[in-house]
Queue: 3 jobs
Job 1
Amino acid sequence: MKLSILLSSLLLATVSAHPGGHHEERAVSSQSSHPTYPTNTTLAPNWWNDIVPYGGINTFAHLPHVFCLSQPSETFDIALIGAPFDTATSYRPGARFGPRALRAGSQRQIPAASYNALTGVNPYASWAKITDCGDIPLTSFSSELALAQMTSAFEEIMTHKTPSGGSPLLVTLGGDHSIILGALRAVNKIHGQVAVLHFDAHLDTWDPRFYVGTPFTHGTMLNLAGREGLISNNSNVHAGLRTALVGMGDYRDDTEQGWLRIGSEDIDDLGAKGVVEKIVQRLKGKKVYLSFDIDTLDPAVAPGTGTPEVGGWTMREVKRILRGITTAEDVELVGMDIVEVAPAYDNQGEITALAGAQVVFEVLSGYVKKGELAGKKAA
Ligand SMILES: *[C@@H]1O[C@H](CO)[C@@H](O)[C@H](O)[C@H]1NC(C)=O
Ligand SMILES: *[C@@H]1O[C@H](CO)[C@@H](O)[C@H](O)[C@H]1NC(C)=O
């Protein structure tokens, strides 16, 4: 795919990125030293290879699509894969439409014009080969069967190689949060135990015994992951917590499972910088799986989700925290997901989907930047 862009749509992107900003119209100067740009309707050869943000079939950020599950020899540095699943939810369902919404929310991320000035990288036009692998065809009739399906699919993706023979970064577009269990199984097979950095309003380490006969839910899967030995028992982090509890025993259980808790209000005392420092301190030297539940954000920022909790972080705070963590020297990212985007509860401005797509952009920016700093170059 040719990574270019129509000048007109680049202008559109620039102008709309600065609403009410400094792009005031001025009378065109008549000074002859200023070049003029007359309208030119002569078309360049193959002009149709250009990308417009409002056109095309929605792959994530207009990246190339390959259905990776049936193409075992396909290589990529980063695999984006959708897990459209929501039958393990406890409140409002609808996250099965998350992958679709996230792809739609990513359409203004155009590979030729996605330079992240704060990270100093364009994640889509650097060394990393990034492929939108499509969606895992998960059943909606049995959560247990779906878990077997997603585990198999994630494991299949993780058997793929990068162009230089390594293991790819797994990026999952959820889906309700339970999909992390399948992803962690697959990542564990390649990397062994990982530390989980869990952005969420909720603990998700709840004891499966509370859910008699149906242990696999979007509130228990981190507990299950611990029992399966997939994740570290002393270096995981929750960030953005603010849910109500059954009682303080929930925190004791959580601590026993190896979790550090950063509450949403902690940012008032620590600042975004302090939150980053606390997380990096905890994750230093670890292989890290970053899981981002969209309900970390305040419902004013991200209403389109299944179990909203008021009093959350803003996207501006989250961008800074993600940048700080993903560019930290001694934190090795091996997988990520963005989960619980349920577009039926989003607003007409698609703000939840936009925020979710931005989370992916920020994390990939940090990941690709670190690769650049380590000497990786475009093939
Ligand atoms: C008009 O556009 C065509 C196609 O991009 C280009 O080849 C040509 O040089 C342009 N002409 C002028 C006068 O800028
Ligand atoms: C963590 O797991 C190791 C074995 O993998 C075990 O020796 C250790 O006691 C565990 N720590 C806690 C706090 O459970």
Job 2
Amino acid sequence: MDLMYSSTRSCDIKVTASQAILKGLAQDGGLFVPDSLPKLDVTLDELSKLSYQEVAYEVMKLFLTDFTKDELVHCIECAYDDKFDVKDIAPLKNADGAYYLELFHGKTAAFKDMALSILPYLLTTSAKKNNVSNEIVILTATSGDTGKAALAGFADVDGTKIVVFYPKDGVSAIQEKQMVTQQGENTFVVGIHGNFDQAQTGVKQMFSDKKLQKELEDAGFQFSSANSINIGRLVPQIVYYIYAYTRLIKTGDIKNDEKINIVVPTGNFGNILAAYYAMNIGLPVNKLICASNENKVLFDFFSNGTYDRNREFILTSSPSMDILISSNLERLIYRICGNDAALNSEFMESLSKTGEYHITDEMRKQLSDFYGNFATEEETAEEIKKLYDKTGYVIDTHTAVASCVYRKYKNDTSDDTKTIIASTASPFKFSNNVMRAIAPEFESTDDFELVDELSKLGKVKIPSGIEEIRNAPVRHNTQCDVDKMEDMVKQFLTQSKKSPTSKR
Ligand SMILES: *Cc1c(COP(=O)(O)O)cnc(C)c1O
């Protein structure tokens, strides 16, 4: 029996894993969730003897049950190969009493590569399985890192096109340059005059616009998503938490079945939700620590059970977490309200109408696995400096938010459980702010001068994904207002037409 996926907003939509991946978002605007969470069928000890790719198979097969072994192994092997600059894909660095799980060794130097290297393979396999002949148009809103990782993953993939919307003034200089220099005839990048939430809302609206879908269908296209609302993003993210734990068993740092804490710098709640799923399928977790920057909606939510996005949107030095509407929280809300789609829909409707909702006490009790806190801009910079001065290890601004929140957690609780901190980006992606934190005397407005100096100070090689954009020509310079996103998509699809060679 295949594991089926339902929408968080109605009980009558049920699809297989491959169909959920193809659709991205359910047609009622809900997110696809598995009807039950499976359990690992091998022990953690056994997993500690396997490679990243083999662990990926053991985890992903539990969720993507309508994929054959051959299909899944093929997707995994194509994704986690020498695109990653380390053989173990996601290495752990022990610094100042915590384990930093480096998830940024893929092509674009952010953790988004962990899932977006495999998503194109999962998606084209899903299309084949479901006899889809339409060309798939990936619509993506990005707070900076998803965009580039998705572009890199889908560039020149037969049978797909990709459109990325990013907030024109809301990403780092390196992030922007990475996107606008993207190669590939099927790629399209637009800077919007608005913030990430507006980009994401615009994209979600296109997904639930029936008229637009009919128009596309007639022209031989259908939408899918590369955002973490797609279950095909979430499942590969569960893998590295399991993998990291088993490496700690292997090195003897933890005993089998010893509980650990996981700290995640959080924006759209995708990465931490993957950790929560990892816990539910059998990973021994003590606390899931949700770290926010000054856009601390989630901290407030964990503190008082009220989700309230009615507040100023703050542009911070950790732009990939500048989010007030954390989409994936909906999957957690659905679960803690007893998989009650009607009740979840009420919360989401309230969120879209009034900008807030309050969960029940009963639901709050089920959040005891989580701890939330936040770091200010000043604290984030201090954290980078402190860790660098003490250990020589350089972390990026997002990881610094997590690292700082972990310090606060330890102060609050005196808990000394071994802790993994998700390190979500290479410091080179945010060289400007990282350099200002560790070497304020080095003044330069040239991004690559900062990158070069950072490489010297941190004694780390510049990732190839950063090096290769140093002199790359700009290929995309389209901008639009928030209310013109749909027009942009249509314009792109007409001008690029369906590629005649399209085949899979
Ligand atoms: C996307 C991103 C995050 C936030 O992850 P979510 O899954 O959206 O919570 C944190 N750090 C970096 C560097 C990111 O790119």
Job 3
Amino acid sequence: MSPHPMPHLGGSTTLRLESVELKAIAEQFGTPTYVYSRAALTDAYRGYEHALNGRRATLCYAVKANSNLGILDAFARLGAGFDIVSGGELQRVIAAGGDPRKVVFSGVGKTAAEMQLALASDIRCFNVESAEELERLAQVARHSGRTARIAFRVNPDVDPKTHPYISTGLKSNKFGVAFDAARNLYRRAASLPGIEVCGIASHIGSQLLDPAPAGEAAARVLTLVEQLTRDGIRLQHIDIGGGMGIRYNDEAPPSADDYLAPVLAVLAGREEEILLEPGRSLIGNAGLLLTRIEYLKPGEEKHFAIVDAAMNDLARPALYDAYHAVTPVTPRNEPAQTYDVVGPICESGDFLARGRSLAVHAGDLLAILSAGAYGMTMASNYNTRPRAAEVMIDGTQCHLIRARERVEDLYAAESRLP
Ligand SMILES: *Cc1c(COP(=O)(O)O)cnc(C)c1O
């Protein structure tokens, strides 16, 4: 197994992403900075295309994994569609040059205003998650003189065997419509003016390392599709969601070929177009968080490396106890010590990594790996910390795709009392 999980990251004396040295990025743009590899995200996208092997399919990149316009632009140029969960994400897709007619809109709480925006943009499909949402959507569509194309997101009640916070396909959670209720909902939808039934969707969870549950979910969905055909309802697409896992530490995730094999076997010979909604697996290992050590603080029980990135920049360790590999940008040939890598925020949960063996000095740069997905999109301004800069590397080039926030930006919309 390679020593770290990120493709296009290498260098013997100092780390490079593609052809650019990370220390040069730190010098030019400062720290903390998210750094992405265009080659890595392109490879991940091509991996899915390879797995789909000529089948009629659209890859709808899940925008919530990383919604920077530069990232969305890169995926749009590869031909991707987009899976969105808010009107704001739709505006980002359009601003990035994405095609709204390749957008599917997921989420349990779509507002009437979001529906209007999506209808006016002529998105491909609303993934409807409740009977009430269907009625509201029909009403909004009729009011605006448009037709909403819909799929129901059904809950196949398959256990994806992942973290409970990121499992979404079990009966017990808030997502999707119950499998047994779907048939009646489709009949209702087919009868509603303003609604055009076009597909079916499911998404069972995230960071899935075993391909079997996705295949089981597809098989469950297919029984419903066949039932609907008998009811006279024909679908144009089957959306099997996202969720393929990546390597953070010592996981052994499947390739896109292996992950999709059971799904493609289940759907072999079907006429419907296949839609996929991958997020993490397209961008997670295409990005890292570059940070500088401010202080080394020896403790009685353990040592701390206090860095200039924090839980407001990368929330996953604090939120899910998630593991991110940490590696010095320019390794030292010295004995290592065990450190917790922590930020400056006033919370004990403010750690990025715990118990790591590192040979480092104050002032050294660290790379927090596999941070491309659910990193910057979950960042906040807690402690009035400006959010990090973002840089996209493309071969020997680097593009600043988000300038570091300034403190004045953070309170620009606030005011003192009259
Ligand atoms: C979050 C989400 C995805 C993407 O999940 P990943 O694990 O990042 O692939 C896809 N579809 C829906 C509906 C989602 O909520």
